[in-house]
Amino acid sequence: RQEVRVMRRYHVQSREDYDKYNTLCGKVTQIVAKLKMLKSNDPARIQATEQILKKLYEMGVIPTEKNLSLCEKLAVSAFCRRRLPEVMVRLRMAQTLKEAVTSVSYTHLTLQTI
After folding, report:
1. How many CB atoms are closer than 10 A to CB 103?
2. Closest Cα to residue 61, out of 70, 69, 50?
3. For residue 48, what are the contacts with CB-CB under 8 A and spacing of at least 6?
């Protein structure tokens, strides 16, 4: 199954986390479908489109804020790539994803807000 593959690939330890990401993707695609039903020159559609694209781009889930079709294809793996262990591997703070997950779970690395 797709969810098992994603959970193994990104070392998502809890099925609840996967379900949350999946629900979020479903809600985004529902919103996009409703937005596409509106006329393209509708001010409400334009504003909502800009807001959702800006939010998803700032989260790092979509590569550009240029078109709404990116949001239709949103996948759980896009959210998994933004998880701390994955970012640690990308920044070479850890050699493997498993090592990064372990260090985060043992709180060797924590994030603090400013």
Report:
1. 16
2. 70
3. 31, 35
Q: Is 62 exposed, middle or buried (0-12, 13-18, 19+ CB in 10 A)?
A: buried
Nearest CA-CA partner of 25 in 60, 64, 57, 61 = 61
Name, in order, each residue with C-beta under 8 angstroms of 25's C-beta and a sequence gap of 6 or more: 74, 75, 76, 78, 79
Reduced to 3 states (helix: H, G, I; strand: E, B; else coil), residue 113 is: coil
Taking the CA atoms of residue 84, residue 57, residue 92 and residue 109 in that order, the dihedral angle to the nearest 10 degrees is: -20
pLDDT reading at 55 higher than 80: yes
Q: Which pTM was predicted?
A: 0.79
Phi, psi for 13 (deg, rounded to 5): -85, -25
